Amino acid sequence: MNQGIIDISLLQVLFAYVFILLIIWYIKLRKMGREWEVVTATVRMTLQLIAVGYVLSYIFERSYPFLTVIAVILMEIFAVHNIFRRVKTPLSKKVKKIIVISMVGGNLVSIIFFLFAVIRLSPWYDPRYFIPISGMIIGNSMTGISLGVFKMIEGFRSRREKIEAALMLGALPAKAAEDVVNSAFDAAILPVINSMVGMGIVFLPGMMTGQILAGINPVTAIKYQLVIMLAIAGSVAMTVILFILFSFKTFFNKDGQLAL
Amino acid sequence: MISPAALNKEIYRFESAGYKDIVHVEKAVIWAFKVTFVTGESGSGKSTFIKMLNRFVVADRGTVFFKSRDIKDMDPFRLRRAAAMLPQAPVLFGETVRDNLIAGAIFSEKDLPDDEKMKEALQIVKLDKGLNENSATLSGGEIQRISLARIILQDPEIFILDEPSSSLDGKTEKHVMENVIGYIKEKRKTAVIVSHSLEIAEKYSDEILMVNGRGVFHK
Question: Which of B84, B93, B106 sits opposite A168 (nearest CB)?
Answer without folding.
Answer: B84
